[in-house]
Amino acid sequence: MKLKVIAHKAVPDRPARNEPRVRKRRPKTYPLMTKPRHELRKQLQTA
Question: Where is this region: Disordered (predicted)?
Fold first, then answer.
């Protein structure tokens, strides 16, 4: 019911609004897990 109402609403024309169609941030790369998880947890707790 509500979805039909939302789908029929028109988006107003906004001539002054222009946004770049690009990603804002680059995804961050995480290092690979080279040790067992329980060892890494211990290492994080002691740090």
Answer: 1-47
DSSP state of 28: P
Q: Which helix (H) or strand (E) holds 39?
A: helix 37-46
Q: Which residue has the tokens 């998880």?
A: 37
Quickly tell me which residue has 């067992």 as its tokens: 36
What does the pLDDT look like over 10-38, one tens digit per residue? 777 878 877 777 777 888 888 999 999 99
φ and ψ at residue 21, rounded to 5 degrees: -90, 65
> Do 33 and 40 meet the contact criterion of CB atoms below 8 Å apart?
yes
